[in-house]
Amino acid sequence: MSTINQVAKLAGVSKATVSRVLSGTTPVKEETRGRVLNAVKSLSYSPNQAARSLASNKSYTIGLVTSNIDTAYYGPAASGVERALRGGDRHVIIACGNGSLEGEREAVDFLIKRQVDALVLITNFLLEEEIAQINLRCPVFVLNQTFPGGDDHHISFDNFAGGEMATQYLIDKGHRKIATVTGPLWKYDAYQRYLGCQKALEKAGLDLHFQAEGNFSVESGMSHMRSILALENRPSAIFFANDLMAMGALHVCAQQGIKAPEDVAIIGFDDLDMSQYYSPSITTIKLPLYEMAEATAYLLLNSIYRTRFPVKNNFSPELIPRQSA
User: Fold this and answer.
1) Beta strand 265-267 with 140-143: parallel, antiparallel or unpaired?
2) Which end of the chain, N or C, is less surrounded by CB atoms within 10 Å?
3) CA distances from 175 to 20, 121, 128, 237, 279 (A)
4) CA angle at residue 43 from 41 to 45, to 5 degrees?
5) 101-156 pLDDT, tens per residue?
6) Residue-by-residue DSSP string for 82-115
7) Which domain holds residue 240?
8) What pLDDT, in 10s, does the model give residues 172-219?
9) Total tally of structural domains belonging to the chain
């Protein structure tokens, strides 16, 4: 079994330099860093994690909280975070909130008690103010949301532009009776998408034909679609604030013999992987979730461990035209 002394000797540096390279806590010249990493690889050296933690007062472990882990949204996000952190030689402990506020709080407490160095929150129920309080206990990093005092701890996405883009697409297709089913409007992303929708309508001199507040679930999309189809004066197009609700809506349409886009055009948001395989395939706005999750992890590594990964802090929406609108 190789030792840190052997790595230092092969790389032609001191033990302290090897430690600095492996911990990522202190800048090291790229040429020196390369020699150390090559020596580590050549000798198949694996540092003693317990000794490393004692020396640095860090656990080199990150906590990841997701509201759920078995959905088309949270799965890719968790995967992106985990892969990037593992690539940065950090362990990840994942805790699931099981779709409730109390569950998310319990998951946060569980991870903090395990002395993680930081938390990545991909949650659905924790309010911004509560996240700010958690950040006082343990550094918090988020994607597609914000919290007071977290300007340097989040990866942002232009949800306003996405909502405007989705609605403008429907307007450009000739629709004038446009409805929207929003996400929970207390959530930052849902509210921004709604404001973007309103902006596009305002610029076109149109009023919103119908509005309902959903909760981002398939069941919510189904329920609101039934209500919309029961209207005497139906909209000709509907902007659903995420793909899951759009899928629920299309399912109801199929049950009632309503064709999209011939009878009603439907556009979603997120560009979940399954959206391209749905029938009809879903026109949507792409939110690059996996890439944003990776960027969040790199932002964390740079902030907590002083690494120097390149980080893209701001992401923009992209229209993905398909069959449903």
Assistant:
1) unpaired
2) N
3) 60, 38, 36, 7, 22
4) 75
5) 999 999 999 999 999 999 999 999 999 999 999 999 999 999 988 899 988 999 99
6) HHHHHHTT-EEEEEE-TTSHHHHHHHHHHHHHTT
7) 159-286
8) 999 999 999 999 999 999 999 999 999 999 999 999 999 999 999 999
9) 3
